Amino acid sequence: MPNRKQGDKENTEDKKKKEEDYIGHRQRLKTRFIVDEGRSMPDYELLELVLTYAIPRRDVKPLAKALLRRYANLANVLVLPMDKVMKIDGVGENSAVLFSLIHACAKKISWENLENRDTPVLSNKQQIVEYCRSCIGYASQENLLIIYLNCHGKYMTQSIEQVGTINAVMISPRDIVAKALENNASGIIMAHNHPSGDTTPSKADIEMTRQVARALKSVCIKLEDHLIISPTGHYSIREKAGYVLLQI
Question: Which of 60, 83, 106 is the last residue of a domain?
């Protein structure tokens, strides 16, 4: 029978070997990321690498895979509200702050690209779409984002006006006009998200667009577009439903 000292020694050596293996694994993840900035890495490895900075002394691969099974993809994990992340077993405050920091940086970069453009915002629709997606595209409830433009069509500011239910957001055209006047805007772009992922406008979406366009026109402000956003797609009423709808 092995004595107790021998057993303790073997347990210590096993623990040391596991720690060395994990340290080596983390370094290999970093090396792979450096090669092509993570483009060839699957989502679970990217999330695992992120988690190593928040949870440095634990194998986080099982946690990364569990989060992706629960929330479907990397983007959905990184945009989770901090209070929700902190309630997930095995995650904690450090991970919650790191996820939110990554999301906040992505939004800020997108916002600065939009704000600092010397050309009208509408000259780069994809940039607008990506900005709207970073702000509201992954939300579990409908949100209405309004981007305010000056007389040259350049970005002035933006606001998220209302959080709705899982499938509806309600705000009156009068409130939208009031906000546009308050911001001294010459035009606005509206965007709201569909948590279902289907960006097809509902009858209510079309009617809301008509009402807002009509109300804005009465005070000489243009509704430049109404975008419907999801994590993977978008619908532009200006492009697909006809620009005339915005000029009623």
Answer: 106
199: nearest Cα among 147, 148, 161, 234: 234
Domain residues for 18?
Answer: 4-106
> How confident is the model over 97-148, as pLDDT tens digits?
999 999 888 888 877 777 666 677 777 888 889 889 988 998 888 899 999 9
pLDDT per position as a tens digit, 210-234: 999 999 999 999 999 999 999 889 9
**Which residues, listed in sequence order, are joined to residue 227 by a DSSP beta bridge?**
191, 236
CB of 219 within 8 A of CB of 164?
no
Is residue 48 domain-shared with residue 153, that is, in the same domain? no
Residue 205 to residue 13: CA distance in whole angstroms:
64
| Secondary structure element (H or E) that encloses residue 162, with its range | strand 155-163
Both 13 and 128 in one domain: the answer is no
